[in-house]
Amino acid sequence: LETLCGWINEKKDIGGIVFLTVVPDNGIKPIVAVCKKGRNPEVWKVAKKLKIGSAVRIDGQYAETQISKKGLEFIPCKIVVVSEMSEEKIPIDFSGKTPFLLDTKLDYRYLTLRLPRERAIFIIRSEILKLAREWFYKNGFIEVHTPKLCGAGAEGGATVFELNYFEKKAYLAQSPQLYKQMLMSGLEKVFEITPYFRAEKFSTTRHLNESWGIDMEVGFIDNEEDIMRLLEDLIVHLVEGLAERCSKELKILNVKLKAPEKPFPRIKYDEVLEILRRRGVEIEWGEDLGDREEKILGEEMTKSGIDFYFITKYPWKVKPFYIMRENYLSRSFDLDCKGLELASGGQREHRINELVNNMLEKGLNPKDFEFYLEAFRYAMPPHGGYGLGVERLMMKLLNLENIREAILFPRDRWRLVP
Ligand code: ATP
Ligand code: MG
What we know:
alpha+beta, binds adenosine-5'-triphosphate
């Protein structure tokens, strides 16, 4: 005898038989409880009265012959309603006949988690983070947590949320950048899985005001190539791990994952401009690549069967002050997938004089960063790292059109509740 707990998603009453569709709490595969009057009048009576949406516990066993296409057929011998709705009707149509709007889905996220597809997305999210942690531990990293309440904005930009901190102003961390670098003066390999807060008035399908990043930083490196190797290795580990552990979830989402080959192509910024030019798009040397440019490059890569690729050797002008400079270029890279930036990283400037110069050139006041600069006065080793966006990665791996689908309760300009 098996016991299943879950909610009634669908109910079909054809007189002598009632069919109940339930996604059990421990899975994503729906079961169809077949309640026949002739077989068990008590169960049938309970089933007949059940409201769609109710939480139930069902004892019974799987049918010997499986006919239903909707899910696994289950023969109940007892149905207990463990919780009734206080509302008359559930606001989501679980039958899938009327597709719901993204807004409805986000307003009732907890209810849509009763659906296999939505649940699969978040089981996969959890597995991605687990796989990432496994990879970092296996490779000798330690997990750290840097403050989210900060006295200075990460890059000194205007994109930070400000809040009252007793008699002072504080800011929500827009990335762990400065703190993870400071740790390089005491640790060799760190990673952090953390929210980022950015106050831009985004209205795109790829930006959130609260997003999650997988960040890492490594000391005693030779150059940014060391970091790219570590990042591509993590990506392959994640893709292979998901394909192996989440096959059921991926199938529901209609996704086939194939691990990309290492090394991922490295395309220099200059080459990107050349590729764009061939497609009739001119951008001036030194300009950052925008959404349009990233997409065109992505299309060109897809033509060669490549999903993941690095863009390297960016002009120093478009990169932040902490990136190591090489004349007019920088030791930075982006990891893109099918036309979307997933990560940014590079080698950092560890020499304090150069670092201060970089700040000045970017129009920042080194005095505002004294707490950070102090860490560079005691033999800071050469170091580098990256920040990888969790929701962006999920978008590309799972073909999600809107980043809001990849996070339980998205925060954007219009959405602060639920
Ligand atoms: P973009 O140019 O695409 O807005 P960014 O270069 O400002 O991104 P970084 O500061 O490089 O972002 O942050 C590292 C990674 O974190 C990004 O590559 C991206 O995957 C993710 N990320 C950054 N900002 C956001 C955001 N607002 N919403 C979702 N993910 C983000
Ligand atoms: Mg970036």
